Amino acid sequence: MKPDFSKGLVPAIVQDSQTKQVLMLAYMNEEAYEKTVETKETWFYSRSREELWNKGSTSGNFQQVIDMKLDCDNDTILISVIPQGPACHTGEVSCFFNETPITGDSEGEVNIFKTIMDEAEDRKKHPVENSYTNYLYQKGVDKIGKKVIEEAGEVVIAAKNDDPEELVNEISDLLYHSFVLLANQGVSLQEVEAELARRFQKKGNNKGERPPIEEW
């Protein structure tokens, strides 16, 4: 069954076939749909440029199509893909990353990792007197790296002691110091997220291609 293009363009929702995360929303005309079916890569129609475009042709972040489903009215497509990189031109894994409130709270739900990383990067650019974060920056990568190693050790000790509360505390310290290290080295959280997504979505990572467990 094909989409109903009688009314014009059809919305196409792209979803990661493994994580089920919604990656992006674009539009298809009949030609874009046919090329998607033919090439097993996502093709869309640009309303602003009035032309077809192949996701990944410029960035290299192609999307391998696994299957496509239509909604009950045959006028919206759900495309399940294996992404070869971030879907968003900003470098985010998904185009849907801006939080919006669903209650009276104007700030909405907070992405705490992003908040901490933003704070670490801001302190790097705009030092604050008596700030522990800026103290770490002043001491440099050796001091920050030492703290990361120390906190990693504390995480293991908490786990060995079977102390869940302490484990949460030490993991939090480790993440904080790791974010400071990233900011100090000029590495963004988005780069880490993109690399994790790449690893998670990597094709061909089957048992036969892995080294023996003894070598891990």
Description:
The chain has about 220 residues and is α+β, with helices and mostly antiparallel strands. It has helices at about 30-40, 110-125, 130-140, 140-160, 165-185, 190-200; strands at about 10-15, 20-30, 45, 50-55, 65-70, 75-85. The model has no long low-confidence stretch (mean pLDDT about 90). The chain folds into two domains: about 10-85, Ubiquitin-like (UB roll) (Roll); about 110-200, Orthogonal Bundle (Helix Hairpins), CATH 1.10.287.1080. The strands form two sheets. Strands 2-1-6-5 form a four-stranded mixed sheet, with helices on one face. Helix 2 crosses helix 5 and helix 4 (about 140-160) packs antiparallel against helix 5 (about 165-185). It comes from Terribacillus saccharophilus. This is Histidine biosynthesis bifunctional protein HisIE.
Physical arrangement of strands within the biggest beta sheet: 2-1-6-5
Any idea what the radius of gyration is?
Answer: 22 Å
Topology, number of strands: 6
- The ordered string of helix (H) and strand (E) elements is EEHEEEEHHHHH
CATH class type of the largest domain:
Mainly Alpha
- Given helix and strand content, the structural type is alpha+beta
Overall CATH architecture of the largest domain: Orthogonal Bundle
User: What helical percentage do the residues reach?
Assistant: 25-40%
Question: Mean of the pLDDT scores?
Answer: 89
Number of domains as seen in the coordinates: 2
CA(first)-CA(last) distance: 48 Å
Low-confidence stretches: none
Looking at the structure, what is the overall shape?
Answer: elongated
CATH topology of the largest domain: Helix Hairpins
